[in-house]
Amino acid sequence: MQKTKSILIIMIVALTLAACGGNQAATPTISVADVQTMAVSTFASSLTQTAEAMPTDIPTITPTPANTVVATFAPLNANGTPGTEVGNPTASCYRLVYISDVTISDHTQMTAGEKFTKTWSVQNTGGCAWQPGFKFTFVGGNPMSGSTFVLPQAVNPNDQYQISVPMVAPTTTGDATGTWRMSDTNGTFFGDPLTVVITVTSAATTATAGTPIITPTATTPSITNIP
Question: Which of 69, 95, 129, 169 is deepest in the core (most CB within 10 A)?
């Protein structure tokens, strides 16, 4: 803008000198319209140079989104303390580990047709409680007249539990083996397979060998809480 003003002043001074020249040689006459045209042209050129000098890359400022806080709440136990949120139990949430044979250790001798009760001690090592209605079912071998055991109560994680199934020794001599497993309400099996293994002998052979015949008494299922 300052440069434009200087050019206009020079043009006006030159026009004045030309008008006052007296008898000097004639010089080209410059009209006021010519001066205005030159001024406008000079001013436009100045604006073009100013625009070219301005930066073309103008950074764009993108606002940063604010952090969003999501609150989660864990369920409370009966005493009001926070509990563990499990959600919908799945088959992978259930675990069963064999602990020991409470009655009828492997290869216990039995007479053909003898009644007995097999009891296993197991532990819930999963993250979900076993629910009433879970079934302990025969899955292979010789069932020995055993029936499906239906869990009558919940068994919490880390608790131990005794499962008892009344059975009858086969009429054929030799070893007899049966395999049983626990399943959830959907029929999905989980945990260790549990087995019963007995050796069936005739009554005469057992008496001759002097081996006493022991008929175990059925036991009531119990739960042991493991801290």
Answer: 169
Supply φ then ψ for residue 119, to 5 degrees. Answer: -125, 130
Helix (H) or strand (E) holding 223: strand 223-225
Better-scored residue on pLDDT, 114 or 9 = 114
Chain centroid to CA 13: how far?
A: 88
Cβ atoms of 110 and 138 closer than 8 Å: no
CA 70/CA 58 separation, integer angstroms:
37
CA distance 32 to 37: 9
Is 73 contained in some domain? no
The better pLDDT of the pair 155, 222 is held by 155
Residue-wise pLDDT tens digits, 4-50: 555 556 665 454 544 445 444 444 455 656 645 554 455 455 545 54
DSSP state of 104: S
| Structural domain harbouring 3 | 1-20+30-47
Together in a domain, 160 and 215 = yes
Q: Can you list the alpha helix ranges (DSSP code H) found in the chain?
A: 2-19, 32-53, 203-209
- Which residue type, as a one-letter code, is found at position 195? T
Together in a domain, 43 and 129: no
Q: 83 in a domain, yes or no?
A: no
The residue to which tokens 């197991």 are assigned = 122
More confident call, 41 vs 209: 41
Residues 207 and 110 in one domain: yes
The yes-or-no verdict on residue 132 having pLDDT over 60 is yes
State pTM to two decimals. Answer: 0.54
